[in-house]
């Protein structure tokens, strides 16, 4: 029952691995787990990987206003970004607007933010949603805030790298337009993933468990990283090792 | 362009006509909440609200108060405080027209307005329901390449830009520092109304270190002093957001009655403190 | 993106490859003249020089030294000092390809580059011989209006932006103050090379008053210390232009021989003072 | 022979009259006479008319770089601007590029600067060229940096208001596409204008002399204005009353 680390710590560790090789990562304002993961990867590269946290003052060296994030992405100066979704489907489409018919949705969410742009332009977009249920992972989203794949000819240097949830990690195949189950988090099973996932996905015969955080990494997260994210995500910093 | 832009908050709010296309910034850029309460008090109606590129409490309250006809935004969010109940309710009851957008589209269309361009292209968007819901956006073939569809956005030219800033001088210059979207808003808009924490007698252009962070007076029509004018939202480097007040708002705004009761309290409170 | 951008002036110049699309600012924005002399000394060839939106002595000398294949500019002017003899001579002898432009077209095309747009529209131009001389510019009908022709400019995406600034820090941030075209140049270019009067050990983002006037390190590939690096052009707030030196240049450059003799003197002089 | 004022003073005075009603005037970097005139008009309006002098630091309240001039013009925030030309023709076309065939011109000038944009967008463009000869005022320019008039349908809120030279002031008729001689500077004649002008223009039966500077205006120019332009045009300030 107690693996010696929290789910948040596992997710931070998984995302930090996914960011390997990136030169610059941007994290949204209310994304503490990706934020912590980006700061961890920055630490591991001794500052070589740059991190911009939108809404932060410490981790924001922009001088051209809010548009700079998007201009940078278009310039190829953003290697990774995170997107979530009230609904995510098996083609990688995401819905940040609402369920039912638009615009009088049954459930209305805040809106699409920068997704309909960054999802096209950032090479490595990591879909991240802790809740792993059929409510979120649906056969077909009700509203496409941004599509997972585009028709041939549409300018799209970026797109989904994969989907990380509280239960598992899926990679995304941009040719096949499908997710592939790569690992199941310790304490969970392929059966559970099948039960909780509303879309079809590729599943190898053997699915490994997601590698647990290395002790040194855990120590880093609980030490320096926790201190660093306290400025940007104060509530999260005080709870995420629980 | 106004030789004497300094005025009272009530006058500033009175100068926003019903039906105006009003452009406002997101929560971390300086939100003119005191002016927003004055607008609600004066009963402004029919606004076309453009959020650069999102809004929170300001859009929520204006929508709840029935001031908004059209809402153009990439999101309305109160973050961790919970749903924007009046926004959600107004959509469900078709009380407002929504123009859902994406952040870079708001920025780009505003930059087109700033540059006097009729339109500007933007990457992304193709294949989204966002694009499908916006008949005012067009897809053309890039005339410089074969088989390269691209979206064109019409320019946004607001009547009035409204925001809150730490400092102005009595000549009409306003200090915004790194919040450059405020400059774009001012350039793109016919008029700019600003509330400030303080008004200096010293020309901001006299200080070479401050000058790069200034909205020049030529763009600024009205400036009103409003101490803690972003409250209950914070103003970076000056005061934090009043989380207790925002939480109480979100609790109250679950019903229209709760919202109206709460609003009454806020409007009274401001009138007393002003 | 470079973890350690500080280097010697010679290294900076050596990192500009032959044939690079190099973007440079106008005379009042910080001209990297010391770096330009280094470029000439190393014998750079085939540059596509983009002037934002005009140039003076820098373009004139690079053209005279045979470093330029294509010159894209709204003007080459030495102002009251007289004609840019080497520029005029190179055109007459067809030694360079000229892309005559107009100031807002250079700015807009660079902004398109900054935004990753393939093109951007611009008013004006229709009916001019400027437009007639630019087959790379297109006229379309504004898709949002009937019978409204408008010019589309392809984006400018330089390989390298090169300018001179008063101050950098050792993390790679560069202070430009109000010279915002330098920021646009840096955003639009793959790499940015800067010479500076001084390098500080203190992070420029640590000072909230300076931060709005900074080009962030992420855009800056190389920074070299070059005291009086704009000489004989001035650097606002630091030193005036050396009018006597520029006058002597203009006198000498009337002939190619005079130019080459004068250049030799300048190159020698710099080597000594560096 | 000595009217009590210099030609420069007369021109400054004429331009200041033409700027009546403007809210904001932009003047180019090397235009001392228009610059002095704009500062004079500003003085007469007690600062109500704004003046931007490109290249100046004192008379420049821009914070968006060089593009701000052009964006402002497109926004309708620039009421008047000045253009010159190596050649100017009777349709108001201007040539700032060169004579003969492009691009190997016989005489090459610096280039078109912002003319191919501002001439279209600024409502009151005052063409200003002191030299009034058939070399400058030609039947047809060799290269159109910017045309005086545009075809119907072309977006053009701005255009030529008139042409001021060292000899005369012409208004421009945007319907007729022609200049009209409005006044001849004191000491010159309609005959001289005809001799020195290479294009046809409308000429009323009676052409008045250009009104001389009023004594109060002359005093202002020689006092406060001279001091003010010394910062921006130091050489000019020391000579222009001669």
Summarize the structure.
The complex is a heterotetramer, with 2 copies of chain A (242 residues) and 2 copies of chain B (274 residues). By secondary structure, chain A is α/β, with parallel strands linked by helices.
Please describe what this structure looks like.
The complex is a heterotetramer, with 2 copies of chain A (242 residues) and 2 copies of chain B (274 residues). Chain A has helices at residues 7-18, 32-44, 67-74, 115-121, 190-196, 215-232, 234-239, and strands at 24-27, 50-53, 80-83, 87-89, 94-95, 124-128, 137-138, 160-164, 168-173, 178-184. Chain A contains 7 helices and 10 strands. Chain A has a single domain, classed as Glutaconate Coenzyme A-transferase. By secondary structure, chain A is α/β, with parallel strands linked by helices. In chain A, α1 (7-18) packs across α2. The two termini of chain A are 13 Å apart. Chain A has a 5-stranded mixed β-sheet, with helices on both faces. In chain A, strands 5-4-7 form a 3-stranded mixed β-sheet, with no helix packed on it. The longest helix of chain B has 18 residues, at 256-273. Chain B folds into 2 domains: 6-118 and 157-267, Glutaconate Coenzyme A-transferase; 119-154, no CATH class. In chain B, strands 1, 2, 3, 4, 5, 9, 10, 11, 12 and 13 form a 10-stranded mixed β-sheet that branches. Chain B is globular, with a radius of gyration of 19 Å. Chain B is an alpha/beta fold and 274 residues long. Chain B is built from 9 helices and 13 strands. In chain B, α3 (57-64) crosses α4 and α5 crosses α7. The chains are: A alpha/beta (242), B alpha/beta (274).
